[in-house]
Each structure stands twice: as structure tokens, then as C-alpha cells.
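Entry for the shared binder. Reason: the reviewer on the internal report wants the predicted structure included alongside the sequence.
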Amino acid sequence: MGIKAKHIVITGAILGAGILWYRGKLNKWKETMKKLKALPTGIRNFDINFKRMRFNLDVTLYNPTNDNFSPDGIIAVVKRIVLKDKTAKRIATITVNKTFISIPAKGKFVLKDLIVEIPILENLSNWQSLSQITSVKDIQTETILGVLGKEYSIIK
């Protein structure tokens, strides 16, 4: 029993169909990912001294679409979150590296108690902007997701 041409054709057809199905699923997932919204939803436990300012931050990722955000085998990693002031100057970078499986349609996923540390000595030029932050609405967030070796940015 050798490999016949029909076996090669059938195997090729199955692989081709699988690749097309997976590509369509990946494209749909990317479109949903572009519509995700990341919002800071809590700031607490401020601690400040001469060298640094530290606080805990919660960020909620919202899926406003009617499609589930479910990579199905594609691991999505929230790599980092960049906090910026109203003028889009970077205040701090939070390294997150948390994976998540899915966000349901019209649902949310909360990243809780992320520790943000801002080196004050390095941000002296931004001190005036930092002192004007009075609520979470004064902070712009950029969430960086890593998927299949590529990085995607969600800015809010």
C-alpha cells in the first residue's frame, strides 16, 4: 500500500480548507480586537516619596461588539500598559504579561491591582502634568496586546 495521488489530493484539500477556515476566524478576531476599549476603572493605594510614586490600577477591557473575543488557541497576552497625560506624554509603563482566554460579546475583562510605579526624578519635566491628574478621566491608556508575535495597541 503506497501513497496514491488521491490521498495526496484529499490531504491537500483538507489542509487547504483548514487554513482558509483558520484565516477567516483570525481575521474576524482581529476586527473584533480593533473595537475593544480599554478604560482605567480604579486607582487606589497612593504612596509617594522623594524617589517614586506608586499606586494600584484596575483596567477594564470592554468588548462592545456582538462577537465573542475568543482567540481559540491563539494566546493573547496583555504585555504592557502605557499611561499618558492629557498631552500624550508618557507618565509610566506597566508591565502586565497576563494572558486571557476570551471576552464575551458585550462583556468585559478586568485587569486588577496592577502596580504602577512612576520614578519622580525621571519625570520632573512632567511634574506639572502629573499634579493635574485628579481622576481616572485625566489618564490616557494604551494597552499593548501580543498575539502570534505581533503587538496590537488599544488606545483610550
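Summary line for the report: The mean pLDDT is 76.
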